[in-house]
Amino acid sequence: MMILIDAGPLVALLHRDDQDHARCVAALRKVRTVLTTTWPPLTEAMYLLSFSGQAQDALLEMVERGALRVLPIDESDIPRVRVLIQKYQDLPMDLADATLVRVAEREGIQEVFTLDRRNFTTYRVGRRAFTIIP
Q1: Which of 106, 104, 96 is nearest to 130 (CA)?
Q2: CA-based nearest residue to 120, from 90, 103, 95, 100
Q3: Measured distance CA(103)–CA(73) in Å, rounded
Q4: Could you tell me the CA-to-CA distances from 105 to 50, 99, 102, 110 in Å, in that order?
Q5: Strand 128-129 and strand 124-125: pairing?
Q6: Dmax of the chain from CA atoms?
Q7: In terms of Cα–Cα distance, which of 120, 103, 16, 10 is closest to 63?
Q8: What topology does CATH give the domain 2-133?
């Protein structure tokens, strides 16, 4: 079993002054499975943490030690990513979210650790809504 994690919680977990830090840390303590993401949310989190080289290094260290697994998106996923972005263009859906939804479909993942409730309560994996943490 895997849980997807979006950029927001990654930033909140590593930035103690973030308004969602305590809530995300408390939620993470209850997680008993592998956190997974894709490169676009990881890139977004690195950008948002650019004020702190130490926080950026901590994020990369999470990947290096296996606390955060980065699932691949390759050329075969792009047609579905395009369909998802078009389907949710009224939100609009960004590339990071589209890759997370695509990976959820491909890997059968139903849980997402995100602060973006507005969008992730709308997105579907098949006909099912995501279970959102926290």
Answers
A1: 104
A2: 100
A3: 8
A4: 31, 10, 5, 9
A5: antiparallel
A6: 41
A7: 10
A8: Rossmann fold (3.40.50)
pTM exceeding the 0.85 threshold for the entire prediction: yes
Distance CA 38, CA 21 (A): 21
Q: What is the pLDDT of residues 12-69, one digit of tens each?
A: 999 999 999 999 999 999 999 989 999 999 999 999 999 999 999 999 999 999 999 9
- Rounded distance between C-alpha atoms, residue 65 and residue 87, angstroms: 36
Tell me how far apart the alpha carbons of residues 47 and 10 are, in angstroms, rounded to a whole number. Answer: 11
DSSP code for 43: H
Encoded tokens for 86:
């078009």
Kindly state the tokens that stand for 28.
């993470």
Given a contact cutoff of 8 angstroms between Cβ atoms, the answer to whether 81 and 102 are in contact is: yes
Closest C-alpha among 100, 112, 1 to residue 44: 100
Alpha-carbon distances, residue 132 vs 30, 64, 74, 84 (angstroms): 13, 26, 26, 19
Contact 15, 49 (CB under 8 A): yes
